[in-house]
Amino acid sequence: MRRSALVRGLLYLGLLLLTVFYLLPLWGALTTSLKTDAEVDTTNPLSFPQRPTFEPYGAAFSYLRRPLLNSLLITLGGTLGSVALGAMCGYVLANFRFKYDNLVFLLITVGIFLPFQAILIPLFQTIRSLGLYDSVLGLILAHTAYGIPMCTLMFRVFYGELPSSLVKQALTDGSGPWRTYLKVVLPSTKIATVTVLIFQFTSIWNELLFGLVIGGPRSMPATVALNNLAGTLAAQWNVQMAGSMLLAIPVLLLYIFLGRYLIRGYMAGSVTAT
Amino acid sequence: MARLSGWFTRHPLWVLVIPLGLVAYFVYGGLLWNFWVSVSDWRGLVPSYSFRGFDHYARLFSDPVFWTSLKNTAILFFTIPLCILLGLGVAVLLDQGLLGSTVFRNLYLLPFALSFVVTGTIWAWMYNPTSGIINTLLRSIGLGALQGTWHTSQRTVMGSIILALVWQFSGYAALVLLAGIRSVPEVQIKAAMLEGASKFRIYRKIVFPQLRGAIATTIVVVMMYALRSFDFIWVLTGGGPGYASHTLPIMMYKEAFQATRFAYGSAIASVLLVLVLLILVPYLYRTYRRGK
After folding, report:
1. Which ipTM score applies to this complex?
2. Is residue B79 a contact partner of residue B162, using CB atoms and an 8 Å limit?
3. For domain B67-291, is the CATH number 1.10.10.10?
4. What is the model's pTM?
5. Residue A248: inside a domain, yes or no?
6. CA of A51 to nearest chain B CA: how many angstroms apart?
7. Which of A153, A216, A246, B207 is the most exposed place for a label (fewest CB within 10 A)?
8. Strand positions, DSSP E, A68-160
Protein backbone atom coordinates (compact mmCIF):
# COMPACT_ATOMS: atom_id res chain seq x y z
CA MET A 1 0.00 0.00 0.00
CA ARG A 2 1.38 3.39 -0.93
CA ARG A 3 0.92 6.18 1.51
CA SER A 4 0.58 9.84 0.68
CA ALA A 5 3.31 12.21 1.83
CA LEU A 6 0.82 13.77 4.23
CA VAL A 7 0.13 10.50 6.03
CA ARG A 8 3.83 9.73 6.24
CA GLY A 9 4.47 13.21 7.61
CA LEU A 10 1.81 12.74 10.27
CA LEU A 11 3.22 9.36 11.30
CA TYR A 12 6.70 10.85 11.68
CA LEU A 13 5.21 13.74 13.65
CA GLY A 14 3.72 11.17 16.02
CA LEU A 15 7.09 9.44 16.41
CA LEU A 16 8.79 12.75 17.11
CA LEU A 17 6.21 13.82 19.70
CA LEU A 18 6.71 10.49 21.47
CA THR A 19 10.46 11.03 21.37
CA VAL A 20 9.96 14.39 23.10
CA PHE A 21 7.73 12.73 25.71
CA TYR A 22 10.23 9.99 26.54
CA LEU A 23 13.40 12.04 26.35
CA LEU A 24 12.32 15.41 27.79
CA PRO A 25 13.01 14.49 31.44
CA LEU A 26 16.42 13.09 30.48
CA TRP A 27 17.24 16.18 28.43
CA GLY A 28 16.23 18.41 31.35
CA ALA A 29 18.45 16.40 33.67
CA LEU A 30 21.39 16.68 31.27
CA THR A 31 21.10 20.46 30.76
CA THR A 32 20.64 21.10 34.49
CA SER A 33 23.64 18.94 35.34
CA LEU A 34 25.86 21.19 33.21
CA LYS A 35 24.82 24.50 34.82
CA THR A 36 26.24 26.59 37.64
CA ASP A 37 24.08 27.20 40.73
CA ALA A 38 23.29 30.71 39.47
CA GLU A 39 22.23 29.47 36.06
CA VAL A 40 19.92 26.85 37.56
CA ASP A 41 18.02 29.63 39.30
CA THR A 42 17.87 32.04 36.39
CA THR A 43 17.57 30.01 33.19
CA ASN A 44 14.93 27.75 31.71
CA PRO A 45 15.71 24.17 32.81
CA LEU A 46 15.44 22.91 29.25
CA SER A 47 17.82 25.44 27.71
CA PHE A 48 21.31 24.19 27.04
CA PRO A 49 23.84 26.17 29.12
CA GLN A 50 25.84 28.81 27.23
CA ARG A 51 29.05 27.66 28.89
CA PRO A 52 28.61 24.11 30.15
CA THR A 53 30.37 23.48 33.46
CA PHE A 54 31.40 20.16 34.91
CA GLU A 55 31.50 21.52 38.46
CA PRO A 56 28.25 19.76 39.45
CA TYR A 57 29.81 16.48 38.29
CA GLY A 58 32.84 17.18 40.45
CA ALA A 59 30.64 17.87 43.46
CA ALA A 60 28.47 14.81 42.85
CA PHE A 61 31.47 12.59 42.20
CA SER A 62 33.26 13.57 45.39
CA TYR A 63 30.13 12.50 47.25
CA LEU A 64 29.48 9.36 45.20
CA ARG A 65 33.02 8.09 44.63
CA ARG A 66 33.06 5.44 47.34
CA PRO A 67 29.42 4.39 46.77
CA LEU A 68 30.06 4.04 43.03
CA LEU A 69 32.98 1.75 43.78
CA ASN A 70 30.79 -0.21 46.20
CA SER A 71 28.09 -0.47 43.54
CA LEU A 72 30.61 -1.76 41.04
CA LEU A 73 31.89 -4.47 43.40
CA ILE A 74 28.40 -5.46 44.55
CA THR A 75 27.12 -5.56 40.98
CA LEU A 76 30.04 -7.57 39.62
CA GLY A 77 29.92 -10.04 42.51
CA GLY A 78 26.14 -10.39 42.50
CA THR A 79 26.03 -10.72 38.72
CA LEU A 80 28.70 -13.41 38.55
CA GLY A 81 27.21 -15.31 41.48
CA SER A 82 23.61 -15.31 40.29
CA VAL A 83 24.48 -15.94 36.64
CA ALA A 84 26.79 -18.87 37.44
CA LEU A 85 24.31 -20.56 39.76
CA GLY A 86 21.33 -19.73 37.55
CA ALA A 87 23.15 -21.19 34.53
CA MET A 88 23.64 -24.47 36.41
CA CYS A 89 19.95 -24.65 37.27
CA GLY A 90 18.93 -23.68 33.76
CA TYR A 91 21.22 -26.32 32.24
CA VAL A 92 20.02 -29.14 34.44
CA LEU A 93 16.35 -28.19 34.17
CA ALA A 94 16.50 -27.81 30.41
CA ASN A 95 18.35 -31.06 29.68
CA PHE A 96 17.67 -33.64 32.36
CA ARG A 97 14.41 -35.19 33.39
CA PHE A 98 13.99 -36.17 36.99
CA LYS A 99 11.21 -36.57 39.50
CA TYR A 100 9.43 -33.29 40.24
CA ASP A 101 11.65 -31.39 37.81
CA ASN A 102 8.77 -29.15 36.79
CA LEU A 103 7.87 -28.49 40.40
CA VAL A 104 11.49 -27.54 41.18
CA PHE A 105 11.45 -25.14 38.25
CA LEU A 106 8.18 -23.64 39.42
CA LEU A 107 9.38 -23.23 43.00
CA ILE A 108 12.52 -21.47 41.81
CA THR A 109 10.75 -19.14 39.42
CA VAL A 110 8.18 -18.08 42.01
CA GLY A 111 11.12 -16.20 43.51
CA ILE A 112 11.00 -13.77 40.56
CA PHE A 113 7.72 -12.38 41.80
CA LEU A 114 8.66 -12.33 45.45
CA PRO A 115 7.74 -9.06 47.19
CA PHE A 116 11.06 -8.33 48.85
CA GLN A 117 9.39 -6.80 51.87
CA ALA A 118 8.21 -10.29 52.78
CA ILE A 119 11.79 -11.51 53.32
CA LEU A 120 13.41 -8.26 54.38
CA ILE A 121 13.44 -8.85 58.13
CA PRO A 122 14.81 -12.42 57.85
CA LEU A 123 17.40 -11.19 55.35
CA PHE A 124 18.42 -8.42 57.72
CA GLN A 125 18.73 -10.89 60.62
CA THR A 126 20.62 -13.47 58.56
CA ILE A 127 23.12 -10.96 57.24
CA ARG A 128 23.61 -9.55 60.74
CA SER A 129 24.21 -12.93 62.33
CA LEU A 130 26.70 -13.80 59.60
CA GLY A 131 28.56 -10.63 60.57
CA LEU A 132 28.00 -9.26 57.08
CA TYR A 133 25.92 -6.20 57.93
CA ASP A 134 27.25 -3.12 56.16
CA SER A 135 29.59 -5.13 53.95
CA VAL A 136 29.93 -5.48 50.21
CA LEU A 137 30.01 -9.24 50.71
CA GLY A 138 26.61 -9.26 52.41
CA LEU A 139 25.06 -7.38 49.52
CA ILE A 140 26.71 -9.72 47.03
CA LEU A 141 25.24 -12.69 48.88
CA ALA A 142 21.74 -11.17 48.88
CA HIS A 143 21.87 -10.27 45.19
CA THR A 144 23.24 -13.71 44.32
CA ALA A 145 20.49 -15.54 46.20
CA TYR A 146 17.61 -13.42 44.94
CA GLY A 147 19.03 -13.25 41.41
CA ILE A 148 19.00 -17.03 40.96
CA PRO A 149 15.28 -17.30 40.07
CA MET A 150 15.42 -14.84 37.15
CA CYS A 151 18.71 -16.29 35.87
CA THR A 152 17.34 -19.83 36.07
CA LEU A 153 14.26 -18.85 34.08
CA MET A 154 16.27 -17.09 31.38
CA PHE A 155 18.87 -19.84 31.03
CA ARG A 156 16.26 -22.55 30.89
CA VAL A 157 14.56 -20.66 28.08
CA PHE A 158 17.80 -20.11 26.16
CA TYR A 159 19.22 -23.61 26.75
CA GLY A 160 15.85 -25.05 25.79
CA GLU A 161 16.25 -23.44 22.36
CA LEU A 162 19.39 -25.50 21.77
CA PRO A 163 18.72 -28.65 19.68
CA SER A 164 18.43 -31.38 22.31
CA SER A 165 20.16 -33.84 19.98
CA LEU A 166 23.34 -31.80 20.40
CA VAL A 167 23.45 -32.34 24.15
CA LYS A 168 22.24 -35.92 23.89
CA GLN A 169 24.93 -36.73 21.35
CA ALA A 170 27.69 -35.36 23.57
CA LEU A 171 26.37 -37.24 26.58
CA THR A 172 26.07 -40.56 24.76
CA ASP A 173 29.55 -40.04 23.34
CA GLY A 174 30.70 -40.40 26.89
CA SER A 175 31.47 -36.90 28.05
CA GLY A 176 29.94 -36.21 31.44
CA PRO A 177 27.40 -33.49 32.15
CA TRP A 178 30.11 -31.06 33.21
CA ARG A 179 32.24 -31.62 30.10
CA THR A 180 29.17 -31.45 27.91
CA TYR A 181 28.26 -28.14 29.45
CA LEU A 182 31.72 -26.61 29.06
CA LYS A 183 32.48 -28.06 25.61
CA VAL A 184 29.08 -28.02 23.92
CA VAL A 185 26.45 -25.93 25.68
CA LEU A 186 28.46 -22.92 26.84
CA PRO A 187 30.28 -22.26 23.53
CA SER A 188 27.08 -22.45 21.49
CA THR A 189 25.07 -20.14 23.75
CA LYS A 190 27.45 -17.20 24.12
CA ILE A 191 24.74 -14.70 23.25
CA ALA A 192 22.51 -16.12 25.97
CA THR A 193 25.25 -15.73 28.55
CA VAL A 194 25.92 -12.14 27.51
CA THR A 195 22.19 -11.42 27.63
CA VAL A 196 21.75 -12.68 31.17
CA LEU A 197 24.96 -11.03 32.35
CA ILE A 198 23.83 -7.64 31.08
CA PHE A 199 20.31 -8.08 32.40
CA GLN A 200 21.59 -8.94 35.88
CA PHE A 201 24.21 -6.22 35.83
CA THR A 202 21.65 -3.51 35.19
CA SER A 203 19.11 -4.86 37.68
CA ILE A 204 21.63 -5.09 40.50
CA TRP A 205 23.25 -1.77 39.64
CA ASN A 206 19.83 -0.10 39.69
CA GLU A 207 18.60 -1.64 42.94
CA LEU A 208 17.88 0.38 46.07
CA LEU A 209 16.09 -1.64 48.76
CA PHE A 210 18.79 -4.14 49.79
CA GLY A 211 21.32 -1.32 49.92
CA LEU A 212 19.06 0.61 52.29
CA VAL A 213 18.47 -2.34 54.59
CA ILE A 214 21.71 -4.32 54.80
CA GLY A 215 24.13 -1.69 53.54
CA GLY A 216 25.58 1.00 55.78
CA PRO A 217 28.03 3.90 55.63
CA ARG A 218 30.91 1.69 54.47
CA SER A 219 29.13 -0.48 51.91
CA MET A 220 26.47 1.95 50.67
CA PRO A 221 25.73 1.49 46.96
CA ALA A 222 25.41 4.55 44.74
CA THR A 223 21.60 4.31 44.57
CA VAL A 224 21.35 4.83 48.33
CA ALA A 225 23.96 7.58 48.25
CA LEU A 226 22.20 9.45 45.46
CA ASN A 227 18.97 9.32 47.42
CA ASN A 228 20.77 10.65 50.50
CA LEU A 229 22.34 13.37 48.40
CA ALA A 230 18.87 14.59 47.48
CA GLY A 231 18.03 14.78 51.17
CA THR A 232 21.12 16.73 52.17
CA LEU A 233 21.34 19.20 49.29
CA ALA A 234 17.67 19.87 48.74
CA ALA A 235 18.13 22.87 46.50
CA GLN A 236 21.17 22.02 44.42
CA TRP A 237 19.41 20.48 41.47
CA ASN A 238 22.46 20.65 39.22
CA VAL A 239 24.44 18.41 41.61
CA GLN A 240 21.51 16.01 41.97
CA MET A 241 21.12 15.77 38.20
CA ALA A 242 24.87 15.25 37.79
CA GLY A 243 24.66 12.47 40.37
CA SER A 244 21.74 10.91 38.48
CA MET A 245 23.78 11.04 35.29
CA LEU A 246 26.78 9.39 36.99
CA LEU A 247 24.52 6.59 38.22
CA ALA A 248 22.91 6.25 34.78
CA ILE A 249 26.13 6.28 32.73
CA PRO A 250 27.07 2.57 33.04
CA VAL A 251 23.54 1.54 32.11
CA LEU A 252 23.42 4.07 29.27
CA LEU A 253 26.70 2.74 27.87
CA LEU A 254 25.42 -0.83 28.02
CA TYR A 255 22.17 0.31 26.43
CA ILE A 256 23.91 2.12 23.61
CA PHE A 257 26.50 -0.54 22.80
CA LEU A 258 24.80 -3.78 23.85
CA GLY A 259 21.16 -2.69 23.85
CA ARG A 260 20.23 -5.61 21.62
CA TYR A 261 21.10 -8.05 24.40
CA LEU A 262 19.40 -6.01 27.10
CA ILE A 263 16.19 -5.92 25.07
CA ARG A 264 16.46 -9.67 24.48
CA GLY A 265 16.74 -10.01 28.23
CA TYR A 266 13.56 -7.99 28.79
CA MET A 267 11.74 -10.23 26.34
CA ALA A 268 13.08 -13.45 27.87
CA GLY A 269 12.24 -12.22 31.33
CA SER A 270 8.61 -11.96 30.36
CA VAL A 271 8.44 -15.26 28.54
CA THR A 272 6.51 -17.13 31.21
CA ALA A 273 3.34 -15.32 30.34
CA THR A 274 3.22 -16.01 26.65
CA MET B 1 14.27 -34.11 25.67
CA ALA B 2 15.90 -37.41 26.20
CA ARG B 3 15.28 -39.56 29.19
CA LEU B 4 18.86 -40.36 30.03
CA SER B 5 19.71 -43.44 31.93
CA GLY B 6 22.25 -44.43 34.54
CA TRP B 7 24.31 -42.11 36.63
CA PHE B 8 24.06 -39.30 34.10
CA THR B 9 20.59 -38.56 35.29
CA ARG B 10 21.48 -38.48 38.95
CA HIS B 11 24.91 -36.95 38.85
CA PRO B 12 24.06 -33.47 37.48
CA LEU B 13 21.54 -32.91 40.24
CA TRP B 14 24.37 -32.34 42.69
CA VAL B 15 25.01 -29.11 40.86
CA LEU B 16 21.63 -27.91 42.05
CA VAL B 17 22.45 -28.22 45.74
CA ILE B 18 23.95 -24.75 46.21
CA PRO B 19 21.44 -22.70 44.18
CA LEU B 20 18.47 -24.70 45.48
CA GLY B 21 19.77 -24.37 49.01
CA LEU B 22 20.09 -20.61 48.64
CA VAL B 23 16.60 -20.28 47.17
CA ALA B 24 15.12 -22.60 49.78
CA TYR B 25 16.70 -20.67 52.62
CA PHE B 26 16.43 -17.08 51.39
CA VAL B 27 13.04 -17.32 49.65
CA TYR B 28 11.01 -20.00 51.41
CA GLY B 29 12.83 -19.95 54.75
CA GLY B 30 12.57 -16.17 54.69
CA LEU B 31 8.83 -16.23 54.05
CA LEU B 32 8.18 -18.64 56.94
CA TRP B 33 10.47 -16.72 59.23
CA ASN B 34 8.73 -13.47 58.33
CA PHE B 35 5.37 -15.01 59.13
CA TRP B 36 6.66 -16.25 62.46
CA VAL B 37 7.91 -12.75 63.31
CA SER B 38 4.44 -11.38 62.59
CA VAL B 39 2.87 -13.58 65.29
CA SER B 40 5.75 -13.20 67.76
CA ASP B 41 6.21 -10.83 70.67
CA TRP B 42 9.30 -9.15 69.17
CA ARG B 43 9.50 -5.54 70.34
CA GLY B 44 12.36 -3.17 69.75
CA LEU B 45 15.74 -4.12 68.36
CA VAL B 46 16.36 -7.44 70.09
CA PRO B 47 14.58 -10.33 68.37
CA SER B 48 12.16 -12.36 70.40
CA TYR B 49 10.25 -15.29 69.00
CA SER B 50 7.68 -16.30 71.60
CA PHE B 51 4.21 -16.78 70.18
CA ARG B 52 1.99 -13.83 70.82
CA GLY B 53 -0.90 -14.34 68.44
CA PHE B 54 -2.55 -12.37 65.72
CA ASP B 55 -2.70 -9.02 67.53
CA HIS B 56 -0.57 -7.33 64.90
CA TYR B 57 -2.98 -8.29 62.16
CA ALA B 58 -5.93 -7.06 64.22
CA ARG B 59 -4.14 -3.79 64.81
CA LEU B 60 -3.25 -3.55 61.14
CA PHE B 61 -6.84 -3.81 60.00
CA SER B 62 -7.85 -0.95 62.28
CA ASP B 63 -4.89 1.21 61.26
CA PRO B 64 -6.00 4.01 58.89
CA VAL B 65 -2.49 4.16 57.38
CA PHE B 66 -2.89 0.54 56.30
CA TRP B 67 -6.11 1.33 54.44
CA THR B 68 -4.51 4.39 52.82
CA SER B 69 -1.58 2.24 51.73
CA LEU B 70 -3.88 -0.45 50.38
CA LYS B 71 -5.95 2.13 48.52
CA ASN B 72 -2.83 3.69 46.99
CA THR B 73 -1.55 0.27 45.98
CA ALA B 74 -4.87 -0.24 44.17
CA ILE B 75 -4.70 3.24 42.63
CA LEU B 76 -1.32 2.33 41.13
CA PHE B 77 -3.15 -0.33 39.11
CA PHE B 78 -4.36 2.51 36.88
CA THR B 79 -0.83 2.44 35.50
CA ILE B 80 -1.70 -0.86 33.79
CA PRO B 81 -4.42 0.23 31.33
CA LEU B 82 -2.59 3.48 30.63
CA CYS B 83 0.61 1.62 29.77
CA ILE B 84 -1.25 -0.83 27.58
CA LEU B 85 -3.22 1.83 25.69
CA LEU B 86 -0.20 4.06 25.12
CA GLY B 87 2.03 1.04 24.44
CA LEU B 88 -0.44 -0.31 21.88
CA GLY B 89 -0.60 3.06 20.11
CA VAL B 90 3.18 3.25 20.06
CA ALA B 91 3.49 -0.35 18.87
CA VAL B 92 1.07 0.22 15.97
CA LEU B 93 2.93 3.39 15.00
CA LEU B 94 6.23 1.49 15.08
CA ASP B 95 4.68 -1.25 12.94
CA GLN B 96 4.10 1.06 9.97
CA GLY B 97 7.42 0.12 8.36
CA LEU B 98 8.77 3.65 8.64
CA LEU B 99 12.49 4.18 8.32
CA GLY B 100 14.14 4.38 11.73
CA SER B 101 11.39 2.55 13.60
CA THR B 102 13.90 0.47 15.57
CA VAL B 103 15.80 3.57 16.64
CA PHE B 104 12.58 5.14 17.87
CA ARG B 105 11.63 1.96 19.70
CA ASN B 106 14.97 1.97 21.50
CA LEU B 107 14.60 5.63 22.45
CA TYR B 108 11.16 4.96 23.95
CA LEU B 109 12.48 1.99 25.90
CA LEU B 110 15.40 3.92 27.38
CA PRO B 111 13.59 5.11 30.57
CA PHE B 112 12.78 1.47 31.41
CA ALA B 113 16.49 0.63 31.60
CA LEU B 114 17.23 3.31 34.19
CA SER B 115 17.23 2.92 37.95
CA PHE B 116 14.14 4.09 39.81
CA VAL B 117 16.53 6.14 41.90
CA VAL B 118 17.65 8.00 38.78
CA THR B 119 14.14 8.48 37.40
CA GLY B 120 12.76 9.37 40.85
CA THR B 121 15.41 12.07 41.28
CA ILE B 122 14.79 13.40 37.79
CA TRP B 123 11.01 13.47 38.25
CA ALA B 124 11.42 15.35 41.53
CA TRP B 125 13.09 18.03 39.42
CA MET B 126 10.42 17.76 36.71
CA TYR B 127 7.67 18.27 39.26
CA ASN B 128 9.39 20.86 41.48
CA PRO B 129 6.63 23.47 41.93
CA THR B 130 8.75 26.63 41.84
CA SER B 131 11.51 26.17 39.27
CA GLY B 132 10.92 22.62 38.04
CA ILE B 133 10.89 21.59 34.40
CA ILE B 134 7.14 21.10 33.91
CA ASN B 135 5.95 24.31 35.55
CA THR B 136 8.66 26.40 33.88
CA LEU B 137 7.77 24.87 30.52
CA LEU B 138 4.07 25.61 31.06
CA ARG B 139 4.85 29.23 32.00
CA SER B 140 7.09 29.76 29.00
CA ILE B 141 4.48 28.57 26.51
CA GLY B 142 1.78 30.73 28.07
CA LEU B 143 0.01 27.91 29.89
CA GLY B 144 1.00 29.11 33.35
CA ALA B 145 -2.57 28.49 34.48
CA LEU B 146 -1.93 24.74 34.22
CA GLN B 147 0.97 24.80 36.67
CA GLY B 148 0.56 22.24 39.42
CA THR B 149 1.93 21.30 42.79
CA TRP B 150 2.39 17.74 41.50
CA HIS B 151 4.03 15.36 43.96
CA THR B 152 4.01 17.89 46.78
CA SER B 153 0.26 18.01 47.35
CA GLN B 154 -1.98 15.28 48.71
CA ARG B 155 -4.50 15.64 45.92
CA THR B 156 -2.13 15.22 42.98
CA VAL B 157 0.65 13.04 44.33
CA MET B 158 -0.71 9.66 43.18
CA GLY B 159 -1.54 11.04 39.72
CA SER B 160 1.98 12.41 39.46
CA ILE B 161 3.47 9.04 40.39
CA ILE B 162 1.29 7.26 37.85
CA LEU B 163 2.24 9.69 35.07
CA ALA B 164 5.94 9.12 35.76
CA LEU B 165 5.48 5.35 35.88
CA VAL B 166 3.58 5.36 32.58
CA TRP B 167 6.54 7.29 31.16
CA GLN B 168 8.93 4.63 32.43
CA PHE B 169 6.89 1.49 31.65
CA SER B 170 4.98 2.24 28.45
CA GLY B 171 8.09 1.77 26.31
CA TYR B 172 8.33 -1.73 27.72
CA ALA B 173 4.65 -2.33 26.97
CA ALA B 174 5.28 -1.13 23.42
CA LEU B 175 8.23 -3.52 23.07
CA VAL B 176 6.24 -6.56 24.17
CA LEU B 177 3.15 -5.60 22.16
CA LEU B 178 5.20 -4.87 19.04
CA ALA B 179 6.78 -8.31 19.32
CA GLY B 180 3.25 -9.69 19.60
CA ILE B 181 2.12 -7.81 16.49
CA ARG B 182 5.15 -9.04 14.56
CA SER B 183 4.41 -12.64 15.50
CA VAL B 184 1.04 -12.57 13.72
CA PRO B 185 1.50 -14.79 10.63
CA GLU B 186 1.97 -12.63 7.57
CA VAL B 187 -0.25 -14.90 5.46
CA GLN B 188 -3.28 -13.88 7.46
CA ILE B 189 -2.59 -10.19 6.90
CA LYS B 190 -1.83 -10.65 3.19
CA ALA B 191 -5.05 -12.61 2.71
CA ALA B 192 -7.10 -9.90 4.41
CA MET B 193 -5.43 -7.24 2.29
CA LEU B 194 -6.24 -9.15 -0.89
CA GLU B 195 -9.85 -9.16 0.15
CA GLY B 196 -9.62 -5.40 0.41
CA ALA B 197 -9.81 -5.01 4.16
CA SER B 198 -8.65 -1.64 5.47
CA LYS B 199 -5.57 -1.37 7.65
CA PHE B 200 -7.72 -0.36 10.59
CA ARG B 201 -9.91 -3.43 10.13
CA ILE B 202 -6.92 -5.72 9.84
CA TYR B 203 -5.57 -4.50 13.17
CA ARG B 204 -8.94 -4.73 14.85
CA LYS B 205 -10.06 -8.08 13.50
CA ILE B 206 -6.83 -10.00 12.98
CA VAL B 207 -3.92 -8.49 14.89
CA PHE B 208 -5.37 -7.28 18.20
CA PRO B 209 -7.17 -10.53 19.06
CA GLN B 210 -3.82 -12.33 18.81
CA LEU B 211 -2.15 -10.03 21.31
CA ARG B 212 -3.68 -11.74 24.31
CA GLY B 213 -0.40 -13.26 25.44
CA ALA B 214 1.52 -10.01 25.02
CA ILE B 215 -1.13 -8.06 26.92
CA ALA B 216 -1.15 -10.67 29.71
CA THR B 217 2.63 -10.31 30.00
CA THR B 218 2.39 -6.54 30.26
CA ILE B 219 -0.41 -6.74 32.82
CA VAL B 220 1.48 -9.17 35.03
CA VAL B 221 4.76 -7.25 34.85
CA VAL B 222 3.20 -3.84 35.58
CA MET B 223 0.86 -5.26 38.21
CA MET B 224 3.69 -6.98 40.04
CA TYR B 225 5.49 -3.69 39.98
CA ALA B 226 2.45 -1.81 41.33
CA LEU B 227 2.12 -4.28 44.19
CA ARG B 228 5.81 -4.17 45.05
CA SER B 229 6.31 -0.46 44.36
CA PHE B 230 8.97 0.89 46.61
CA ASP B 231 12.07 2.42 45.02
CA PHE B 232 10.48 5.05 42.82
CA ILE B 233 7.97 6.30 45.39
CA TRP B 234 10.56 6.22 48.15
CA VAL B 235 12.89 8.48 46.15
CA LEU B 236 10.20 10.83 44.80
CA THR B 237 8.02 11.38 47.87
CA GLY B 238 9.16 9.08 50.69
CA GLY B 239 5.49 8.15 50.98
CA GLY B 240 4.35 11.72 51.57
CA PRO B 241 3.11 14.35 51.80
CA GLY B 242 1.81 12.95 55.09
CA TYR B 243 0.65 9.46 54.23
CA ALA B 244 -0.72 10.46 50.83
CA SER B 245 1.57 8.22 48.76
CA HIS B 246 2.09 5.38 51.22
CA THR B 247 1.87 1.97 49.62
CA LEU B 248 2.16 -1.34 51.46
CA PRO B 249 5.90 -1.74 50.75
CA ILE B 250 6.57 1.84 51.89
CA MET B 251 4.54 1.36 55.06
CA MET B 252 6.31 -1.92 55.80
CA TYR B 253 9.76 -0.38 55.39
CA LYS B 254 8.93 2.59 57.61
CA GLU B 255 7.36 0.50 60.35
CA ALA B 256 10.09 -2.14 60.43
CA PHE B 257 13.29 -0.27 59.67
CA GLN B 258 12.58 3.28 60.76
CA ALA B 259 10.25 2.75 63.73
CA THR B 260 11.82 -0.66 64.58
CA ARG B 261 8.38 -2.25 64.94
CA PHE B 262 9.58 -5.45 63.31
CA ALA B 263 6.63 -7.64 64.23
CA TYR B 264 4.16 -5.08 62.91
CA GLY B 265 6.23 -4.61 59.75
CA SER B 266 6.30 -8.34 59.12
CA ALA B 267 2.50 -8.49 59.44
CA ILE B 268 2.24 -5.85 56.70
CA ALA B 269 4.67 -7.89 54.59
CA SER B 270 2.56 -11.02 55.06
CA VAL B 271 -0.56 -9.23 53.83
CA LEU B 272 1.43 -7.99 50.85
CA LEU B 273 2.58 -11.54 50.14
CA VAL B 274 -1.00 -12.81 50.19
CA LEU B 275 -2.03 -10.13 47.68
CA VAL B 276 0.84 -11.09 45.37
CA LEU B 277 -0.06 -14.77 45.66
CA LEU B 278 -3.71 -14.07 44.83
CA ILE B 279 -2.59 -12.69 41.50
CA LEU B 280 0.29 -15.04 40.93
CA VAL B 281 -1.15 -18.47 41.69
CA PRO B 282 -3.69 -18.67 38.84
CA TYR B 283 -1.08 -17.34 36.45
CA LEU B 284 1.64 -19.75 37.56
CA TYR B 285 -0.81 -22.63 37.60
CA ARG B 286 -1.44 -22.03 33.92
CA THR B 287 2.27 -21.85 33.13
CA TYR B 288 3.02 -24.93 35.20
CA ARG B 289 0.34 -27.01 33.51
CA ARG B 290 1.60 -25.90 30.13
CA GLY B 291 5.12 -26.92 31.17
CA LYS B 292 3.92 -30.42 31.89
Report:
1. 0.92
2. yes
3. no
4. 0.91
5. yes
6. 20
7. A216
8. none
